[in-house]
Design brief:
This protein has 285 residues and is mainly α. It starts with a helix and ends with a helix.
Length: 285
Amino acid sequence: MGNSSDNVRGLILALSSSIFIGSSFIVKKKGLRKAGATGVRAGVGGYSYLYEPLWWAGMITMIFGEIANFAAYAFAPAILVTPLGALSIIFSAVLAHFILEEKLHIFGILGCVLCVVGSTSIVLHAPQEKDIESVKEVWNLATEPGFIVYTSIVLVLVLILIFRFVPRYGSTHMIVYVGICSLMGSLTVMGVKALAIALKLTFLGTNQFIYFQTWFFTVVVILCCLLQVNYLNKDWDAQNGSQIVTELCGFVTILSGTFLLHKTKDMGNEESKHSSTSLASQAKN
């Protein structure tokens, strides 16, 4: 990582965020279990968890984590902050082992190790971020044709998942909820980055809330977060902590394995060619 003090602040905030969010998963899971025992489970459309103090304790812990994550985007580039969110999985897995007595199998452990290695690599090579003097600069980037097309595709996919797939497969296939949250998350990152920069510049003396763009990004962040919280709760209720961690880390493992296969696919042929060349040279001698 570069010598930028802003990058260091962003790193510390991102790590703090992972600890808070990882802990909140466990507390909210216990709250969801308790609420599900006395009311309609979130996984089948219930909202009894809203009356459970333990769930709110987890939500407050998550809010602290998200505030730290939000602040991290004001100091460090998104390419540094976003991947570090994977570390919350590690903290969640450790706490689930001791508190929820949920065991990880070998692939879950391998996935956790890969998350740590990948996060470390990103931290060590995080780029310096371009100085932004106004939220209007972010708006100009967000309104470029390429990003508008991407946003439109994401919104269409989310609507299809919500209105077509959730009623049919939501209670049996976790990927539906994960898809909604992941797609909206990509837009949330953009909104959070813009809003964090606006707040940072405002605190430094350049008020950004006189621009409608700042308020637009604020609304985007609120809507995206509310949608994600709703579907994440349905997802967590249907899966235990071990399953969630294993599936997420398994995805990382699959990507890593695919990368290794691609990078080493010709190694055998190169070794064979080298051996053949050596034998031919020896025969001539």
